Amino acid sequence: MHAFTILFILAVLLGLGLRLWLGARQIDHVRTHRDAVPPAFVDNIPLDSHQRAADYTVDRARFGRLEYVFEAIVVLVWTLGGGLAALDQAWRALSLSPLLTGTGVLLSAFLIMGLIDLPFSVWRTFVIETRHGFNRTTPGVFAADLLKQTLLMLVIGIPLALLVLWLMQGMGELWWLWVWAVWTVFSLGLAWAYPRIIAPLFNKFSPLDDGELRERVARLLDRAGFRSRGIFVMDGSRRSGHGNAYFTGFGRNKRIVFFDTLLETLAPEEVEAVLAHELGHFRHRHVLKGMVVMTALSLAGLALLAWLMQQSWFYSGLGVQQPSTWMALLLFMIALPQFTYLLTPLFSWRSRRQEFQADAYASEQTGSTPLIHALTKLYRDNASTLTPDPVHSAFYDSHPPASIRIQHLSALGR
User: What is the DSSP secondary-structure string of 241-272?
Assistant: First the structure.
């Protein structure tokens, strides 16, 4: 067996073992603390809500462990099991041009992976989310969303795949710089187009018409020096009972979006505090910094791929005997996450640090108390566990644990 094959198998098994261990820690820790509300929330979150959040967290964690095992099996079947090689040979048998063959292999691989994941998506939506009172998606809406997502993938994916493969085959040794430039432009274009073109395909967006809230938001935006294309309410309740708020787009095409479920739960001053937190990300340029980091990582990744494409062991070590640009791309996208999984805590730590910075900004703008009240309601209504396992949280969580976050806000003293 090739050394790289052994290394790949070890990476898959190590990642699976770590995921299962972290999931078991989360389940045990949440269940152990199920019968007592943490002191910071005892006056605002009743025991039955805390227990509901614990049960929801445990349910999702158990199902997640099953997914991890299945995903590891799929990765091994695709690669060492000969799945990708068989798919490649099926397309080669059609005697199409290399560009069409490669595009066909790429898109069919993504479609097959989507079909493989479909039963898990159905179970999450119609069993777990329904069991805990969050799902509002009908089978018709679910099917329509799936159809739209598939069509979007084809409409966007076909020309992008053709262009990338053409550059990989025709631009010499520095093809990866050309692909990186195309990918960067594509990512920026997609971020710009998402709020105006893509998001409205799935949800309805209405201008915010609440008088008091709109005035509060307008004054906050003026203080922050933030300009956007509008403040919108999204019909999130059509699919889920979870509440949220977010910014989307960039440049002059920025939008502020509130879920209707959020506005039903929070008072105007609490919504203002949530928005101030999001503005904190804008003020600290977290989105821009994230884009810079991802752009740099994509450049490094493509440079690595350019080198790996020239190594015969990269293909044979992953179960492919006939090298090609498209197989190199597919193998890279499947193999890389197996080797970079251990970097997850680093990105999680960076995200939590940014959340603390955004909280501090919100405290300066609206005071800590409204944001504390808003977060407490969101923890309660979204059934977010108040007692995550510390190791699991440090590894995965993009936001600080609830108790630590509230303690941090209270210490700001505003």
Answer: S---EEEE--GGG-EEEEEHHHHHHS-HHHHH
Q: How far is it, in rounded angstroms, from Cα 8 to Cα 335? A: 8
Sequence letter at residue 332: F
Strand order through the sheet with 255-259: 205-207, 231-234, 255-259, 245-248
Catalytic residue among 215, 278, 355, 364: 278
Query: Catalytic annotation on 278?
Result: yes
Separation between Cα atoms, residue 82 and residue 202, nearest integer Å: 37
Residue type (1 letter), 86: A
Convert the pLDDT of each residue in 116-142 to its tens digit: 999 999 999 999 999 999 999 999 999
Please check whether residue 395 is in contact with residue 345, taking contact to mean a CB–CB distance below 8 angstroms.
yes
In whole angstroms, give the CA distance from residue 12 to residue 4: 12
The answer to whether 365 touches 253, Cβ cutoff 8 Å, is: no
Two tokens, residue 338: 């197996």
Rg of the chain over all Cα atoms, to the nearest angstrom: 23
The Cβ of residue 404 has, within 10 Å, a number of other Cβ atoms equal to: 15
To the question of pTM greater than 0.85 for the whole model, the response is: yes
Which amino acid is residue 376, in one-letter code? Answer: T
Asked whether 191 and 249 are in contact (CB, 8 A), the reply is yes
Alpha-carbon span 373 to 379, nearest angstrom? 10
* DSSP secondary structure of 352-369: HHHHHHHHHHHHHHH-HH
Tokens of 149: 């997502």
Residue pair 210/262 in contact by the 8 Å Cβ criterion: no
Token output for 87: 């798919």
The DSSP element (H or E) to which 231 belongs, if any, is: strand 231-234
Collapsing DSSP to helix, strand or coil, 102 comes out as helix
pLDDT tens column, 151-208 = 999 999 999 999 999 999 989 889 999 999 999 999 988 888 888 888 899 989 888 8
Rounded Cα gap, residues 231 and 210, in angstroms? 11
Q: What's the CA gap between 133 and 383, in Å, rounded?
A: 10
Question: By the 8 A CB rule, do 63 and 128 touch?
Answer: yes
**Pairing of β 245-248 and β 205-207:** unpaired
